[in-house]
Asp23/Gls24 family envelope stress response protein
Amino acid sequence: MTRAVEAGPSPSDLPEPAERGSLTIAHAVVRKVAQHAADQVPGTMLTERRVAGVSAGRSGASAKVGGSDNDVELSLDLALRYPAPVREVTGQVRAKVVEEVERITSYHVRSVAVTVTALLPDVPPRVR
């Protein structure tokens, strides 16, 4: 018994690439990529989140995304390890964030504002 094999559309049957549709990457995705990239830089630290004095886990960098079209402006809040060369680490954060956001999303990063919200010791303080 022979089975008929159905072939898919041939390349000549497909619409032109420009007519196939578009891809939009939400700013929420750009924010997550920026936060993850910032957290990968040596010298950045996770901080403990607290809600009404109760520990709610740990978190890394926090990002906000602005801009329009294919250009984005990023604002990052992050904690650094103490003692740390602040200018050096924040420069590395900017470079890593721009590289990753542009590589993964194809957005052009116009600016990255970094705010250091805390300098934290490598070792947690002793409890007495």
In short: The helical segments are 27-39, 86-105.
